[in-house]
Amino acid sequence: MAKSTSKAKLNQELASFLRNPRINEVFAERKKDVSYDEFLSNKMLIIAAIRAGVPYSLFSLIQQQAPFSEDDWADFLDISTKSLHRYKTSDDFYFKAIHSEKIIEMAEVTQVGMDVFGSMDKLKLWLHTPNFALGKLKPLELLKDSYGKELVISELTRINHGILV
How would residue 165 be classed by pLDDT, with cut points 50, 70 and 90? Predict the structure, then answer.
């Protein structure tokens, strides 16, 4: 799938989700459609999305553009791949807040990683390579919890600014 087509589908699905009454109960101040990139930089909108629960349809598009395997996603969300498959077949499934938060965190990691490396292949290689600055762990190993995710984002930011440890 082409990058622009993928972003267009993400923007369309996000707009649909943000018009949903589930999210408007939590975040009534939203006045216009926002792009996926704008969404990931708006913490209040992210909070509203987490509380409303990310729909499987939006997760599926995020999953397609992220550098993570289905097993990685199951590990991040602390659910089985069998459950992920079951959610896929369920009409109108929304993830719980705890899972929604992790989905959005991984979307943020993907966005920052793509900004730094500009290529999914380079990002995947970096995620799977032990990193001295991260205690010789693979960045992927740190993404299971939010503190590890923050370490990974911080390291990506340092790389982007040319600060190599």
Answer: low
